[in-house]
Amino acid sequence: MDLNVSRRSLLRAAATVPAAAAVAAGTTTPASAEAETTTATSSDIHAPATRFTIAVLPDTQYLIDEGGSDEEPVRATLRHLDRDRSGVVFMTQLGDITEHGTETEMRAADRVFRAAGDLPFSVLAGNHDVRGDDQRGDTPYLRTFGPRRFAAMPTYGGSSPDGYNSFHVIAAAGREWLVLALDWRVSDAGLGWTQQVLDDHPTLPAILTTHDLVWADDDGDAHLSDHGRRLWDRLIRANDQIFLALGGHYWPSGRTTLTNDAGHAVHLHITNYQDRYYGGAGMVRYYSFDLARGVIDVETFSPWLRAKRRPTPLEAEHTELTGDVDRFSVELDFARRFAAFAPPVVPAPRPASAVMPRGTVAYWRFDDAGLGGVGQPFPGDDGAAVEPGTVARDLTGNGNDLMAELLHSSGPETLTWSAEHHDGQPAHASLRFDGGQSPDRGALLRTGPDAPLNSLTFESGYTIETFLKLPEPFAGEHAWMGVLSWEGRAGEAGKHSGWSDDEPTCSLNLSGERFLQFVVYPVPVDADPTSWSHALPTGRWMHVAVVNDGRHTTLYVEGSRIARNAAEESRGITTLGKPFVLGGTQYAGSYGQGFYGWLGDTRITGRALGEEEFLTAR
């Protein structure tokens, strides 16, 4: 796409269309080590890691069988997990460790699981390891994989009094996660203990693991088993914290999604490969959580087979499984899914005095500290109209107040007050603009004719920042709208290199593809260097910064530099003493459509700010 032509489309359109760790009952230890990082929000400019992996090891019974088997595939998998510390933070096993649950087999399992090294993990009993429910008393399994096995692990939180149910707390991606490892037959007492663990950790998203949960048909569609139905009805559906439940026992593998009592999705998966080549060949499944992308990426493979230099055709066929139930992604808006029980920690509002670094020439915000003048009440209610003439005060005291006005014959709904805001925004308020085409409508805020900002040229550098959010859906009638600008025209300044002498001397716009476009006519040259972003998402707050160091301009979105920037020398802004405008871009002396979406705190600084000085930095 010719971006230069597309940018001109904005102007052409404007011309042609005017416009605790809880102490649970039974054996417990301190829950988890402190979280690796502080809680992340979407506003963190230097956010903690947002990706981690939980490994899932299903039934290994055919490989740990005193009647004749080969333990090496399982040992190879555990060695691999112990070494793969780039992302794997925990491993959970799904039961049926052994074929018969005998003392001999459990001693073998004990030796095999030592290969996991320091990697924390959970284990639960399957029907080949034990008989009856979790009140069965002493067994070789309990002596091998009871509470004493996990006591030294930093993730271990405790076990039920019978020792067959346990929980772990994992610190990853800036928060803690609860893993429940439940016996293959949880008694009423076990369910009560599990509920107490959830009650004692009310803000932790929970992953439930057990042996018998769902079974799948040949198409991979999973259905609750009888025991799975009991867990669903007695535990899962009423506890919104449980968002993922994993089981083994049956084959083939499969998955389903059910809706809990809170109206939220719960993902239920079956993982079992004992029917595959070599008793499953030590298959492991990776659940890679990516909080930035809002997905859990799932893959299944055999580290033992991967390590073979010359695999046979049958081995090569089973090294990685790529079917729809073995390699897939689960879309999950983590913040939204967990908001009911773990609302994100949003920084408190910051006073204007705390966010005006050296060189700040103008700062506007739309809370009660910045919106409304003498005799003008602060709107204060979501959706309340912001009347024409309402003042947004320049909180620097430099006299660059903005005044609201409606374009064309727009109604009061075109500019309203909103309590929505970017998590990292100093003021917890914004303005909602309802601009558009057919007919052209909109609203804007403009400096007065004598505002000092109108004449500043910023030849030593500048930083322009704002917060914005685009609504969903973002229809075609909102293409090529202006975010902010100065009203001066290129021809008035003797600049004739652009598409038209009537284009503004400086503006931040949004293309039809939702690309941000910053175009400026510098002071010393007849040129219009332009900076572009990627396609911005809808329904999501973003911090946008334009930083000029006196020569080059860099565009930032959410603290990330955008590569597609102008290379020409760009010193200063040809402002011509004309007003600064928020919410629109003027062409040929008139405004067509106005901005569509939310705009929050906006700040202009007369120097190039470092990333650590942005409005979102804390």
Explain this structure.
The protein contains 10 helices and 32 strands. The protein is of the alpha+beta class and 618 residues long. The strands form 5 sheets. Strands 17, 20, 21, 23, 28, 29, 30 and 32 form an 8-stranded antiparallel β-sheet that branches. It is elongated. Helix 6 links the parallel strand 6 and strand 7 (206-209).
Keywords:
single chain; 618 residues; alpha+beta; eight-stranded antiparallel beta sheet; 32 strands; disordered N terminus
Sheet having the most strands:
8 strands, antiparallel
The N- to C-terminal Cα distance equals: 38 Å
Task: Please give the share of residues in helix.
Answer: 10-25%
* Shape label: elongated
Summing up helix and strand content along with how strands pair, one would put the structural category as alpha+beta
Number of strands: 32
Strand content: 25-35%
